[in-house]
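Handout, page 2. Input:
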Amino acid sequence: VSRQLKEEIRRGFARLEDPLAGLLAMLESSSDWKGKGHSLGYCITMELQLWIKEHPAVPQSGTKLKKLQARVLGMLSQCPANLLDPLISIYQLHTADRNYLLEHVSHLYLQGDYKEAAILSIKLKLQPDQDVEKMCTPLLLQDKANLVEDYVGEHPELQSKLLQTLDTWCDPSFNIRDITRPYQGLSRYKPEKFNRRVLSKLVFRLLERFNVDPALCPNVINQRHLRTLNYLFYKRFVEKSMTEENWADHIQSTVGDNRWLQGQLVQALLCHCDARGAARWARHCRVPPEMLPRALAEELQQLHLQDRVEEVTKADNYEDSKKKDYYQLPIPRENIHFLQTWEKMLQCWEKVLQPGQVVGVDMEWKPSFGMVGKPCVTLLQLALKEEVFLLDLPQLLEQAEAEGEKEKLPHFIQMLYSDAAITKLGYGMSGDLSSLAATCSALKDTEKQMQGVVDLLAVDKQVDGLSPEHSHKERGARQPEKGLSRLVQHVLGKPLDKTEQLSNWEKRPLREEQILYAASDAYCLLEIYERLCKDPESFGLGSDLTKILVGKQSKKPRTKKQLNKQEAPSPSGQECQGPRTEPSQPPLLISPREFRVVCDNMLQGLGRYLRCLGVDVRLLDNEDDHRKAAEIARQEGRVILTSGLPYQTLRSQVGEGRCFSVNCSEKAKEQALQVLKHFNVQVSLGDIFSRCQ
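Output:
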């Protein structure tokens, strides 16, 4: 708003006998104030709010104010959101008669203006005097869950009532149509968004957001546990990818003493096992005998110890046979160290934090199977060339806190991740670091500060697989490999044995199988990295692989110097430096209209952002091959914007300086600034939105 207009508005207020009544008269007769954005009515309202603060004698009281409040209440349901707070403040609606306000909101509700009634209730803090189920039901039917969250946001008692209501609706015996029937003619009603599955997800979101005890929602929790139970039976009896001991651990912790879940367990056992097997597992999971069918109860009485002996023998034979099928650790067992004390931890510290060191990093936690809260890391694995360290995080954190030095472990981890001279190898690092931050709040900024990291997840999609005839060799009917196991198979010849992946990693002591699995998961990263760096072409990768692997995952903005020089530690820790062209003189600035680019399909957000700034942009579709970018660039004289490994392929197909690698971990705005700076593009005000969007 111009200074001249502000002064004119204020002079107008000074001339009015009653500025509050004057503003209302203007808003009631104006047509532009109901639109979006900053209308003239909005500007005048904001100036009056400021003017009143400077003139305390202006606000009114008594009958005159009540009449003004009645008029403004009638406008609030129609006015833009940005005018609600100023009008409520100017006309002191928080001091109005509460019953009168409730009656007005009730009138809006009966008219079918459910959203407006809820927003006004929130602004006027009326929720404690309202029926939470009545207010929130139509909002949920209209898929306005965010507004429901805001409605109960500051009221713990309403949060509990809402959660109990939602949990009742999630009871399998409850007829959801009883809820929807009164709202058949509801506008914007979305029945596909109102079912037990969607409501269950909402309950879990609210439980986590408001930190409410899950015991308040037994139906939703039981249904989630039942899905976990079905999943565990699938993993053990259909996919056959979970060991008996792992399976038993998770079944016991899932079912516990819950009678309903025990009944579901018995039904599942009868479907997947013979009578003897079902009885044995029922006994193992402590299912009360009175819950078993008569035939199963009789079988339970006849069980003998011999069953257990036979099962153990089968397991031993299985362990011997599978070694030839899976990746095996190349280091001796005595070089795997399980660390639970700070004395041993210091020895690890000295070896890991060495300049030039290459470290394979992995983490384990107990599977949550979709329950409330983020998982907490219970084991941190650090693999060096000759040995692997397994850090018992709960024990180390507890010991450090007891000694009054709880920052010791976070300090070590931050030093490791922020040291550019140490190469850290991972697979899906972002998820690991998110769980690490949930475990220890002091580590929440680790991802922003990390340097010298290589996330092999980014490489995985670019590696050419083995030929089909090798992919199932000696594997029988086992499921196809996924994730890191698939990459290990492609690069090292054999997959990882993932049977311990879903272990209970909180339970101590860890079993020998868990220790070997955890060590293998971290150590295989070293071997993959070394093999890819030594011979990238045989896996379909560019010859200068090491120049693009490091630093792509860091969210830290890169300096101008770093943008002109791509660098990465090699497996030995030395830097591999790419060619660098120094311009003899500063290049001339160009306008966005002269700058023509083609954006690879992983950079569609960047392309749209550059188009907003006036740049001539062509976007590849999701299904397009990366090589199409080179074809368009040659035909139309465009610069290719791409990222990661496609950069290596595309830059050789166009002229020098006509292909640019963008940091994919940054947001579109930061990417755009990086591109504009590199190509000396200067954006003026006239360029913004100069092209059709």
